[in-house]
Amino acid sequence: MDLPESPGPSSIRELSHCYRALLGGICPKLSGGEVARLLFSGVCGQVPERDTQEGAETAWELIAFSLTLLRKICCGLSAQSLDGAVRGPWRDILSLLFDPMDLMSHSPPLQGAVNPVWQKQCVQAFSSSPPGPELDACLWSLTEVVKKLLKQSHQVLLAEVVASFDCSLTALCSKLLPEERTEVDFSSSWRTTFCLLLDLLEVLTASGFICGAGLNLRSQRIPAVQSAALLMTVSCCSDYFVKKRILLLLKRVLLQKLGEDWSLEGVALYVREHKDLRADRCVLAQCVLQAVAADWLQSLQVERAVFFGGREKEGLKPDGSMLRAVSLVLLKSVELHLQTAAADSYLQSLWSWLRRLDVSQTEVSHSCSWISLLFGEQDDDLMEAASASLHERSFRRCSGWDGYSVLEAACASGCNPHCHFVLLLQSLSFDHSILLDFLISSETCFLEYFVRYLKYLREDWQGFAAACSHRNVKRLADAHGSEPGGSVPPLEGSSSGIGLRLVEYDSSDESNEETSDGHKQSQTTAALMTDRSSKLKTKPCSSVIQNEKVCPTAAAVLEEETLNVLDRAVFCLSELRQVVTRLQTKQLFPYNPSSLLKLLAQVENCYQRSPLS
Question: Which of 115, 211, 267, 609 could form a disulfide with 108 if both were Cys (CB 3.0 to 4.6 A apart)?
Fold first, then answer.
């Protein structure tokens, strides 16, 4: 990149000509590339002898002038005060600065110290500027600076930057977020400002995870501290897009998936491992549960899905991403407050709200079907929802709340982990290769969920058998209005990842090779399945369970429909164990699966020991 050799007073004169041209509503005399280079060197304070007192003063003067001109360009373009023919060249200048030149990574806040000129302008805007271009520019610039520092892991400088804006940002949030329940009518300027503020709140909350508990500034905890105001905004705001953005932010905070849209890579994983801000998540969860108890869900309006072209189409289902955000916020809040005795009532409120919105085209008679129906093939959210449900039920069992009555209550509240897992297998057509894709993928929390569920299954085999009895293939299809063996239909806007294999694992030339122990156990399991099927041919078919709302007893495992689902589920897990064993033997599996293989073998042992009569 070619920069001016001696920027200084001459650069200020040239930038002054550009400033006057901008105020006059005309194009600059210099080319776009020349103006971009002048602004780049000015913002970076590149002057000769900067280490001297005179050079430092010149540098700060150049930085201040360059930032002023840059802010004026941004304001002029965002306010559309420039004519169409003039707007293009100024927009090209910004494009050059922020794309090929990457100005944000070279700006003074990222060069070892906080630029006092930039800091002063932003603090003044946060403290006194109304929603509009000037405040928007400061919110955006601070967001980009914090993002860059997060990606580059500059923890010391990151803490310094966040601390310098803590008071002014806290005051800004108090000004923009409503304290009382009043109708909030967002104009276009308010909408833009509020969305930029939400982006900033996300990066600041992520910085709290990265910096650790040593900093713990109020501006890093606003989603928790101001959670009541955010939820009230969702209820009162007339702008649907703003409501959706708030709920997506709360969802990411509760799931600890801050920055998932920024490609932070390793930083995102580090955020998930941090435990210091669990208290803030619990505060947010408690606020959500209090709002739900006060009929907050009934105030939420969900628009219909929009097809390509932007218009609503008659018969489309409600906005799937909005429904998933609301549902996960509530499910994670219940998980974080496992001791509450009203957990089932919160979930019943959620299912009632979904019924009122007519999410399903058919009546959902079994509440456990809601998880699959809501999240469909949205793999990451589906695993988070199933994991939250599993965690809640595991806590109840560890607390001595076990027994058949708890199994009934789990189905009634829609949180029976066995039903969820059987529904997942059915949606995959019991294809073990898709489970293998999930196991080696880092895009979902499936491995963590799968290991925890297998431990749960090992301790509650009869509960799993009863869920298989309750969720035979035909009834699984009927509950969702689909054909037997078909996948659960997703909501509008969901992805279609399930059903696509990443790799054809069985295409290897050595795919038939097995270890001796694994091959022996597989033969035992397959033989037992064949034996049970042959005995059933001489056994009269039992009647199908009539009452869908009550979880059946373990004796229902003997029914033909039960063995259909139970056999297919166990055989799927058996095939998964075989292929993982084969990949481990060839050192092709990405991690050590020994514990996972042990759990899968224990599940097969439970199946082999289960009685037929």
Answer: 115
Cβ atoms within 10 Å, residue 192: 19
Higher pLDDT, 354 or 514: 354
Residue at 596: amino acid letter: L
pLDDT by residue (tens digit) across 483-496? 333 333 333 333 33
Instruction: For 236-256, write each residue's pLDDT tens digit.
Output: 888 889 999 999 999 999 998
Helix 404-413 and helix 461-470, axial crossing angle in degrees, nearest 10 = 50
**How far apart (Å, rounded) are the C-alpha atoms in residues 574 and 555?**
24
When pLDDT is cut at 50, 70 and 90, the band that residue 523 belongs to is low
Q: For residue 319, what are its two tokens?
A: 């906005």
How many other β-carbons are positioned within 10 Å of the β-carbon of residue 150? 25
- The strand pairing partners of 306, in sequence order, are 312
The half-sphere exposure of 437 on its side-chain side, counting CA atoms within 13 A, is: 15
Range with top average pLDDT, 77-81, 310-314, 523-527: 77-81
Domain definitions of the chain by residue range: 1-104, 112-261+272-302+318-323
Which residues 6+ apart lie within 8 Å of 262 measured at CB? Answer: 147, 150, 151
Confidence of residue 51 (pLDDT cuts 50, 70, 90): low
Residue % of the chain over a pLDDT of 70: 67
517/598 Cα distance (integer angstroms): 12
- In angstroms, the CA 496 to CA 494 distance is 7
Distance of CA 238 to the CA centre of its chain: 24
Give the predicted TM-score (pTM) of the model.
0.74
- Whether the CB-CB separation of 347 and 335 falls below 8 Å is answered with no
What integer best gives the mean pLDDT of the chain? 75
Q: Which long-range contacts (CB under 8 A, 24 or more apart) does 272-279 make?
A: 274/209, 274/210, 274/212, 276/209, 276/212, 276/213, 277/208, 277/209, 277/213, 277/221
Closest by Cα among 363, 334, 404 to 552: 404
pLDDT at 521: 54
| CA–CA dist 171, 107 (Å, integer) | 26
CA distance linking residue 496 with residue 48, whole number of Å: 57
Distance CA 461, CA 418 (A): 10
Kindly state the greatest CA–CA separation across the chain: 100
